[in-house]
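Hi team, as promised in this morning's meeting, here are the two structures we talked about. I've kept the exact order from the run log so nobody has to guess. The first one is mostly here for context; it's the second one we should focus on when we meet again. Sequence first, then the predicted structure tokens.
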Amino acid sequence: MKAVLVDESVQVTEMPDPGLLEGGLRIRVLVSAVTGLDVDVATGRRSYHGIPGSSFVGLVEEARGEEARSLVGKRVVGRANHGCGVCDACRTGDDYRCRDRVRPGLYGAPGAHAQYVHLPARAVAPVPEGVSDEAAALALPVSAILEALTRGELPRWTNVLVVGDGGMGMLSALSLASAGYTVTLRGNHGERFDLLRRHGIHFNLATDQDEVMGMRPGRFGPALASYPFVFEVTGHASGWDAATRLVSPGGSLYVLSSFQDGVPRPLTEIVEKNVRVIGLRQGALEPVLRILAAGLFDPTEVVSRIYPLDQAPEAYQRTQDRRDRMALLRMSYAD
């Protein structure tokens, strides 16, 4: 099968298709997203050599085991992590607490930037009818964002600041706005304002130099002195500095950045302001898929371009230098 291989460079090559294990699925990948985590792998910021890609939708073509066979012919999306399936945590449904858990495309198993991916049946969720391949491929990052609504106990109709207007930043702003929050996005790509304005999202334009110097950015819509809830989605130290400076005393800071750039993040503001920090990497997929099926939210608005698998190196490059808001790889089409 063709696959993206990260090994000192990003290349598309032929790879062996692993055989099925008991309870496993052979999934033909339809669409897979190129996320910041994938770029971390490609640039060497995360130590992983193999096939990247954790956010995808695919069609189950083969299965081994009774539970797995019930998914044949269905579209599915993969969960962020899956555990061993036999420990106490896995048996109670908390496999994200499993000490032997794997995350395809990051550690423990190959990812979905390939024509096929193999996963156990417990590691996928079926996609309802009416959800496009492109939207389903983004269900995993949306689930991480919306996890803040429950874990973070965000009250309705409150002010939220998103720091970072890359793909995940845009997706965070649109997700939170669709859930009824008053959202301000702080970024440095003014051409993205029109999309945000259609959803009633305020936009603060700030360059990296503005962040370093603590300068007040240009703005479209109100710019508060501080925000009770701040999402840090930049992946850069300057974004962390802005987020910790702008979160209110006693507020909450939600972190979706991977912090793989090797730059220390100071905690002085966090401690002095008594700020709660919550890391977001995964959430429940089923509620997100129901939201997408009901047409309440369209994550594909953040997609700049869809690349064929053979052009994966270009997709990685454009995502890395932030020319694309969000890039997808189209592997195949469902029959």
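And here is the second protein, the one for discussion:
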Amino acid sequence: MTDYYHSCLSDEPLTYLYERGFNDITISMLKIGFCPEEVSIRYRGEVALQSGIALPNEKAFLSNRITFPYISKNKEITDIRGRIIPSVADTIRYKSPLGGTYFRGADYPYNMFLESAQTLIVTEGEIKAAIAYQYGYPAIALPGMMTWRNGFRQKAGQKIIILFDSQAEGFLQVQSAIKSVALHFNSVYVATLPLLGRSKMDIDTFFLEHEDLFDVVIQSALPFERWLQVIQ
């Protein structure tokens, strides 16, 4: 289905991706796609139902969403998530396929093919990891701030940097998420995006507006224990 969804990219989802900073090379390499709203034989049968991409009425569960396949180091698709396009009213912006991650075997973060990078950024959300990758920074993503995927393990000598959104309000939730994710590593660093006059700052916005400063953010990452002292 990944290739099919990639072939369905059309004007609106492409425009949205370009606005978020994507280029055609990244869209192609990461097989980003679009799931149209349709009744199709593709969604017929037990395989489609058990994988969580189909509804019993043979409709797509991720319809009207930009799709982000989770690609492993062996180029296998281990999961897929969908982001609603702006013109469609839906209170749920992101969806994973139906069924629990354990049931679906979705045990790996997004961009798992980068797992062996010597320095690896861990962030929240596929768009942020994909944009960091586009600019040459290996990054994996969790599908939510408070989630974890047990298929990833820190490699010997690997530097892990947690980089979540910065926000003027509600930062206690971000801090809590960072603390939760940090427990899964032997040693970890935390980087913080400066707000620079905004109420919220994420990776893709930062690259669009301050690409030249991203190295400074990464180089300024603090060891987790030191970061804890700073935020107290």
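Starting points for discussion:
The radius of gyration is 18 Å.
The mean pLDDT is 92.
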